[in-house]
Amino acid sequence: MISTKNVTKYFGGFQVLKDVSFEINKGEIVGFLGQNGAGKTTLMRILTSYLPATSGEVIIGGDDVVENSLAVRRKIGYLPETPPLYSNMSVKDYLKFAAQMKDVPGKQQHKQIDRVLEECNIGDVKNKTIDNLSKGYRQRVGIAQA
Question: What domains are defined for the chain?
């Protein structure tokens, strides 16, 4: 479950989020809609523990995003519009790196990488370096690592 309670964020004196509260149950699919500058990206960065809230609480799967940020990052995947990929790595090497960062046991890594290569339809580019991929393929690699 994802739970936010009264999440507020200021950048300097500018309030970006004000008392955001909601719960998302396991298995639910949600989207954040709003105008440019509404705070969608800021909220996602707070949810994924990449940016601290000014106040409020965020719990992901029982872990507080501030107190247990590493545990949260292992549980949740986040794909921004332009995924932060290591462009000099091959797709397969990058997915192995991502699996290691998420503490996927060594014996399961190969199996999971093969699964996401197939699910994201990127098996045909697994040996190409990321910088040689189209934007669409880079998005798929980002989805695969999430």
Answer: 2-75 (3.40.50.300), 91-145 (no CATH)
